[in-house]
Structure formats: structure tokens, C-alpha cells
Amino acid sequence: MSTDVKTIPQVEQTAPNGIKLPIYMDNHATTPMDPRVLEEMLPYFMEKFGNAASRNHSFGWAGEEGVETARERVAKLIGATTKEIIFTSGATESDNLAIKGVAEMYKEKGNHIITAVTEHKAVLDTCKRLEKYGYRVTYLPVQKDGLVDLEDLKRAMDDKTILVTIMFANNEIGVLQPVAEIGKLCHERGVIFHTDATQAVGKVPIDVNKQNIDVMSISAHKMYGPKGVGALYVRRKNPRVQLSALIDGGGHERGMRSGTLNVPGIVGLGKACAIASEEMAKEACHLAGLRNRLRDRIMGRLDEVYINGSMEHRLPGNLNISFAYVEGESLLMGINDIAVSSGSACTSATLEPSYVLKALGTGDDLAHSSIRFGIGRFNTEAEIDYVADRVVETVTRLRELSPLYEMAKEGIDLKSVKWAAE
Amino acid sequence: MSYSDKVIDHYNNPRNVGSMDKSSSEVGTGLVGAPECGDVMKLQIKVNQQTGIIEDAKFKTFGCGSAIASSSLATEWVKGKTVDEALAIKNTEIVKELSLPPVKIHCSVLAEDAIRAAIHDWKKKQETSKPVAVAAQ
After folding, report:
1. What's the complex ipTM?
2. Is position A420 within any domain?
3. Cystine design at B39: which of A87, A105, A414, B63 (Cβ 3.0–4.6 Å)?
């Protein structure tokens, strides 16, 4: 399981129970590659280095064969056909191609796009750019549990709406949107439905037909594949979706994405999908078990701990918790042998707390106090127990240091205090 | 974010954590920042009424490691100083001592504010408590 992942650039220590430190539990940021994926990729760097577009020699054919096997594997995982898979450099490119490609192609039909406030920046910033070019964008709010209200979506649609883009699973809170219902509403109105499924592919079952998805972004490195490779699913019938290309050139990928194919990367993505097709059901149970164990071991021992987002509609490996009266960055500093993320402003470049948590109606104070745990394929039960212990210990220590915890315990309503901000 | 050794030391071993009786006339309390901003500091000083020297200082902070370190350092620095000397402490000195990066300068500003707020509170108490003290004699 850990054949080739020994080179973590920090001093490795060993904790009780033989746990290797630091522990990686930030699998929404990226995942380690599965050794089986690497093994499949390796021949495509040296022996099978050919350009998949070289049609007249065996080097090219070997590359093409690798790519086409991968295309079948990706298609199979999501219930698509091979002609509906376009390889890209990753989900950010896929999101850009989907949104800008649809906007450009269907501009005669309308100029209105609907998305949600909790989308990834790759979607939000793409929509913002289109606004500069005269498109109209509606940013739907989400409910307290992080889900889009279908009634809001219905109301937002008009006869100029050409595209709805709503993510499958959120990267911070792991909340799963009602994708099938959203797709149905879109199809009833002849609107194209794109979903950024970066966090969902390989984690939860996806069937593009059953779930009424027209265009879908896929990334390899969130599912134990390599970085710098992804795919875009583009529906071929009922309805047939057409896209304007972003990158022009040699006409690769049916003209939708020119550029010599990243053959080893694509082979890796394919293998990652093949593994997911085989193991996803079992793995999801395992991850949900670990996640619930972590939740119970933290919440059983600490008061005033809040889960952000729906527990019911959620990725199995995601847990996002706010620890009231403790600031997220200081918590991360205390558990520095564990790699997780925080929604605290102090951990972001913008000095603003997580916009996703704010959209749920979580106060800024609790957004500052949030930690995202991303549990993945290679985490163990012993690691979960260690992480829970370290979190409980650190939160307890920081609360002893927290004037807010002291005030709350004295019965002071923190909302009624007039804070003298800086 | 990488922290300086001094920030890490204050975070791991914060000095003078705790609370003093805020109703005492010898104690000045400063509470600055706001939970929404991700930083709240409470800094308290205990002043010798005869000498005007700060004999003890305590803090509690909700905030990042740099905020905790800034307030921990502030309590160390004010102890043994007169209130006027303590008022002269500048946030830039805290920045220098802890090697705070530009994005963390606001933590040092908050610590300076906390010192000032605590002294202000103590001074206010002296004004109001004096007539009472005279009457009691």
C-alpha cells in the first residue's frame, strides 16, 4: 500500500500504535497516487512514449491504445460512451471549457447562466468573466444544510437561460447537491446542465443518464490519480451538446481540445477510474465508518462543536466541523503533525473566512473556527483515533486560553457584547 | 504559513495565561477585537496603587498563533513597567521581536490596543474610586 510514498518532505516520526507522522487527512485538496495507478503509467513515459496522434507507426498506436483504454474506463465509471469523454489538463480547464464553451456556442439562444454561491472558484470566476462579456449570471443561495433549493432554481430560470452549472459535491463541506432533480428541471426547459464533479467522481455512484447530466468536469488527482489531467463529459444525444473550443490547434479530442495528449496522465486517470469502478462501494462504507468514528470521538468529548452542512447528503470521507471559541489557524498549529484545512480567514490569501460556510449562514466567528477533515483511501482507524485525541486535546487547551469560552461559560451572550473591532 | 521560533514558543508555552478579578480597583481590563474578525484579546493588568507599577498581567486570546504570541509577549513586557512606560510599547516592537510577517501585523496592533485598553480601564477606575477612598478615610 505504501510502496512509493516515502518521500514526505517533513521529518517522519512514529506515534503510538505505529502511526507514521505526519498524517495526511486533506484528501479534498489532493490525494496520494494509488501505487497501482503509478504502475500502469510508468511504461508510457519511456517505452510507450509515442504521440497518440501519430497514426502511421507502432509508437503512436501504443499511445493511442493507452488513451482509448483510459477513455473506456472513464466512460464506464460514469455510464457514458467513449465518444463523450474529452481529456483536459484538469477540472479547472474542464469547468472553463464547459461554461465558456456552452456560453459561446449557445449565445444566439440566450445569455443567462445559473450557478450557486458555494461553487468552486473555477466555476465562479469563469461566470464572473462571462458577466464582463455581457452574460447575465444568477448566483443561487443555498439552504442551511448547503443544498440548493429547487424552487429557487425554477424561479431563476427564464427563456434566456442556456446553462445551469451546479457542483456535484462541495469541496469544503462535502455536501451532495440533488443533481438528478436539477438535471430534470433543466431538461424540461431545454437548458444544458453542467456539474463540476471533481470531488464526487469515484467517491459516489454517478450515472450521467439517470442523473440527467449533460456536461461534467472530472479530475484525476482527487481520486488517487496524477495531477494535471482531467476530463470533460459532453453528452452526444438527448440532447446533443456542442461546445466552442477554448484551445485551438491540431484538432485533437474531436476539435474540442487541441494539444498533444498527456498519455501517461490519461492512462493514470483511466486506471484510477477502473479501480473506483471496482472498489467504490466497499470503500465508501469504509470511509463513512472512519468519518463517523472521527465525528463521534470528537463530539462525544467536546461541547459546542458544530457540523457544517448536511450529514445525510454528504461525501463519505468528508467532515467539516466548527469548534466554537477556538480560531482555526491556531488549532491547525496545535495539530501540526496532521494535515487538514481550515475555513479560517488566517489560512486564506484573502483574509476572508470561507465563503462556503458564510453561505450556509454560519456566522463569521464559527467560520473562523472550522476544520475540514478529508478522509481517504489510505487512512486507517488508528490514524482516526490519533487525530481525534489530538484535536480534543488541542481544542481543550485553546479554550482554556480563549476569552470567548470563558465569557460563554460565565453566561455572557457573546452576540450582545459590543465588540471594539480594530 | 511558517512561524518564527518565538511565535511557536509563545504558542506552545504561553506566558501569564489567566484572569484576574475585573471588579478590583487595582485591575485594569482590556478586551479588544471581535469574534467575527477572528481575533479577540483580553489583557489584564494589576497595578500597585502606590508606585503605579504593573505588578502582574494576565491574558486570554482567541486568535491565530501570532495573536496568541503577541498578547503573551505583551503581558511579559508590561510587567514591572509603570503604566506610562507600558503605554509607550509600540506594535512595531512586537512585530520585530516575533518576526511577524506583513499579514500578521494586525495581531501586534491588537496587542498594543489591548495594553492601552487595560490601562485606560485602570485609569478610569482610579478617577471614580478616588472620592470613595477619600470618603472612607
Report:
1. 0.90
2. no
3. B63
For residue A252, being part of any structural domain is answered with yes
Q: How far apart are CA A301 and CA A309, in angstroms?
A: 21
Candidate from A9-23, A261-275, B42-56 with smallest mean pLDDT: A9-23
A336: distance to nearest CA of chain B, Å? 11
Q: Which residues of B touch A403 (CB under 8 A)?
A: 31, 40-42, 60-62
pLDDT score for A418: 85
B40 touches chain A (CB under 8 A): yes
CATH, residue A355: 3.90.1150.10
CA distance A216 to B55: 66
Q: What is the pLDDT of residue B131?
A: 54
- DSSP strand E in A292-401: where? 305-307, 318-323, 338-339, 341-342, 370-374
Q: Are residues A321 and A367 in the same domain?
A: yes
| Bridge partner list, A370 | A322
The model's pLDDT over A7-66, given as tens digits with 9 standing for 90+, comes to 444 555 667 778 999 999 999 999 999 999 999 999 999 999 999 999 999 999 999 999
B26 touching A (Cβ < 8 Å): no
Distance of residue B65 Cα from the nearest chain A Cα, in angstroms: 5
Q: What is the DSSP string of B100-123?
A: --GGGHHHHHHHHHHHHHHHHHHH
> Could you tell me the residue range of the domain that residue A110 belongs to?
37-275
Catalytic-residue membership of A346? yes
> Is A269 within a domain?
yes
**What is the average per-residue pLDDT within A229-257?**
95
Residue A86 lies in a domain: yes
Q: How many angstroms separate the CA atoms of B112 and B78, rounded?
A: 11
B68 and A345: CB-CB below 8 Å? no
More confident residue, B130 or B71: B71
Using the Cβ of B33 and the Cβ atoms of chain A, whether some distance falls under 8 Å is answered with: yes
Q: Which residues of A touch B36 (CB under 8 A)?
A: 363-365, 368, 419, 421
Q: What percent of chain B is helix, strand and coil (3-state, nearest 5)?
A: 55, 20, 25
C-alpha cell at A149: 433549493
Judged by CB atoms closer than 8 Å, whether chains meet at A422 and B103 is answered as: no
Domain B5-126: CATH architecture, name and number where available: Alpha-Beta Complex (3.90)
- Say which CATH number the domain at A73 has: 3.40.640.10
Q: Which of A344, A363, A402 sits opposite B60 (nearest CB)?
A: A402
Number of domains in chain A: 2
Q: Are A265 and A226 in contact (CB under 8 A)?
A: yes
List the beta strands (DSSP E) in A311-398: 318-323, 338-339, 341-342, 370-374
Query: Do residues A139 and A249 share a domain?
Result: yes
